[in-house]
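Sharing a chain and its predicted structure for anyone who wants a worked example. Both blocks are below, sequence first, tokens second.
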Amino acid sequence: MINANLMRFHPQKESWATKYMFGREKIYNVYLNPADNNPLESAIFIEDGFSFMAFLFNGLWAIYYRVWGLLAACLIIGTIIELVALRTGMDSEAMGILSVLFYIWVGFEACDWYGAALEKRGYVFYEIISATYSLEAKLRFFDKYLNSKNKAVKSLSIEGNSASPHPA
């Protein structure tokens, strides 16, 4: 027999770091592909905000997520910064500052560019979900989506049963 005391949920006290650094709500944009038989299987969740991976590995990030416009922008603007630095005799510190500012901008805009690339591939922006982690966002979305579908099915069956059983 299982001890009932072991089955009780004992919430732990939140630490300062969890509350203020890691436990913040994030915004997730949900994209669905209506051309799929089951659009839930191809649902893509994009965390809104700064993408640290796009900041550090912008070219590789763009290739991985197939955001070709971002890849082209990184190559072109990187080349322009290099050419301007060579032509004007800009020192390496100023060139580095320009490059870092550009990559910070890429980090902030990468998620928007990824969403635009998904829309070009046929995906449709479906909803915004607020959650602490991506798994929680997925659970909230699927719970909401499936509950709304069940309510629609139940309302259809109620409307179908409300008709008089005998034709007039």
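Comments welcome. The first helix runs from residue 4 to 7.
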